[in-house]
Amino acid sequence: MTQWRLDRTYRSTSGEVRWTALGEEGAPPLVLLHGTPFSSYVWRGVARALSARFRVYVWDMPGYGASEKAAGQDVSLPRQAEVFTELLAHWGLGDREPTVVAHDFGGYVALRAHLVHGARYRRLALVDAVALTGWGSPTYRLLGSHSDVFAQLPAGLHRALVTEYISSGSHPGLHPAVLEQLVEPWCTEEGRPAFYRQIQQNGLDTTADLDGRYGEIAVPTLVCWGAQDTWLPVTWAHGLVSAIPGARLRLFEGAGHLVQEDAPAELATALAAFAA
Prior knowledge:
Helix 1 packs across helix 11 (264-275) and helix 2 crosses helix 3. The relative contact order is 0.16. The radius of gyration is 17 Å and the shape is globular. The protein has eleven helices and eight strands. It has helices spanning 44-50, 77-90, 105-115, 138-145, 147-150, 155-167, 176-183, 191-201, 234-243, 259-262, 264-275; strands spanning 8-12, 15-22, 29-33, 55-59, 99-104, 123-129, 221-226, 248-252. The chain has an eight-stranded mixed β-sheet, with helices on both faces. It is of the alpha/beta class.
């Protein structure tokens, strides 16, 4: 459950990025993007399941998980989209356009890389994705409004805050070992300031630059959503489906914002069928 290692490194324009690939090299490529305040660890089960049929690429965004966290680092979503575009080139996929699966913040990153930087995809799946203006859970909004104050919390209180915050992303609740793996990167000496840095740099209007552009998306698109998501309720899913031509919706009953944790088998099955 806790074994997840990104064994490769890419030096991006926003710091060192840790990544890995699973599955046979010649298999169709599929890329998984995480959101906040998570890392590629949330994709571990789905990634391993999909690697039986695909070459699965996973990575931690700069400022998250095992990737570099540094003072003054640009971890804004527009920069993450640039880094993702760099990574796609670094992986040397050539004319093998990947299926891209993006969760939470990763949704905007994948959409911006595609619409602004010209990243080419074969298919696109958006999972409880941050994309439409007005997003933001109540907790994220509170932290964003008072990030300077929360950043002064003692280490123990900071850990308790992050633990409660991440816990609320799951509907049935996270296994304690999983929760610890998601919390720990934010509780190191580098991780504590990094937690508030990514909130400070990504305000609720960050996604406004793509408003009105989703009609340009021509690749087959699947919108996946936890039916019990309290961070981004299902109304956001319907909004995305309406904005993207031909997009289809798949709801997962009993799942919250972290569908990967709450319904991993159902999500992996749906993604495998869509990517195939």
